[in-house]
Each structure stands twice: as structure tokens, then as C-alpha cells.
Amino acid sequence: MPVTAAMPTAKERPRRTRTKRVSALPAIKLSQLLPSHIDLRNPLKAVLVCQDCETWVPITGMQSKVQKLVPHHTGKAHVAAAVHCRSSNRRVQFDITIPEWRHALTDAATEASSRQATSVLPKAFSPQTDQTLRGRSESGAVERRAEWAAAFHRVRQADQRRTVPQGARPTDGPEAPLVSHQAAAQLEEGQLQCERCGATASSLVEAVAAGWCRIIHRPHCGRCAQRFPAWTRTSF
To answer: How many domains does the chain have?
Structure first.
């Protein structure tokens, strides 16, 4: 029976190592890592996320002059293949303090919570709206077209019955008519006369082009209209 060599698997990462080897890669600065990729809650057992294999790796030499990552494999222990990570024994530079790291971690958590989407519950329909929507869903396209045709017919009949006589006073309007008798006579004759200076315009088109306005429903030329506030001036 042939015997095959078993494939070596990754080993557990030790907390402390006695090797004096140091990686030639540049040191890892804690200030350049995300606060969530560092764990300094227990300084003697500090860990961080390796930049190469993106796994949590302990930091050794916390009580010595040189702090570095422990030798480790790239995969999970006893599961993945034993592939040596090139960031093993890489130096770690502590350029931030533990209180600064805690403050940065708190700010990052606050910012992340503010970006989380809140659940918005839809507003409940009233019984009348729910009944209308159910009726529309149950009725077919032919019935809906018939309803729109009937509504359009009623609107057209209301427009035909709506008559507004010239110079009539609305029910809730002022006592004075909308158009003075003098202005009505001038409109019939085709000539407008300014109430202030007496200037005339041969037609309504000429008056509009010259900047004429109505002030208290009376025609004024463009020069006289400028003497009154803008909110009192209305165009023809």
C-alpha cells in the first residue's frame, strides 16, 4: 500500500517568538492603518491585520526595543496550506498612543453608524383610499376608460356653463368694478389714456410695448407707473 506524504497545514500563530530575524520590508505605521484593523485593548497581546494576507496577526516584542509581527502563514490554522507570509517578522512602528487609537476608533464607529440606512415604514392608507385602490385594481381597462370619458364630459359641460360678464363684480371682491367705466369705454374705442399725465395709446398692443400698467385697475403709462410700488402694478 503506497504511503503519500500529508500536505502540511498552517500552524497557530504564537504570541511570543525568540527569533532575532527582522523583515527587510518597511515598518508598518499604526497611523496608516484603519482603527478597526488594530486591537490595543490588551497592550501585551496587541494584534493587527496584516497588509499582505489580511488576517489578524499578533505583535511580538511589546516589552523590548523592536516590535514586529510574529512569523505566520497566510491561511487559517490547521485548515489552509502552510504558505509563509512575506510580512512575517515585519517591524511595527507605534506612532500613535493607546488613547489616540481609542479616540479614532470611537470616531470611526460613530461615522459608520451614521451611514447605516434607517428603515422607513410606509404610511398606512386611509379606508377611503384603500377602497379606491382596490376598486381600480379589480376594474378592467375598459371600465377605467369609461370613467375617464364620463369625467371629461362633466368637465367640458362645466366649462361651457361658466360665463363671466365683462365688468362684473365677483361675490367676494371689492365694491368697485374690476374695470372702470372710463377704461371700459377706452377699450371699446381702441384708445387708452393715462390716468396721471393724460398720455394716450392708440391700441392695447402699443400700450403693452410701451410698458403701460394698471394701477388699481386704471391704465398708467410706463413713466407714471414707475412712481408706484411694484406690487401695485399689474400688466394688461
So the answer is: 2
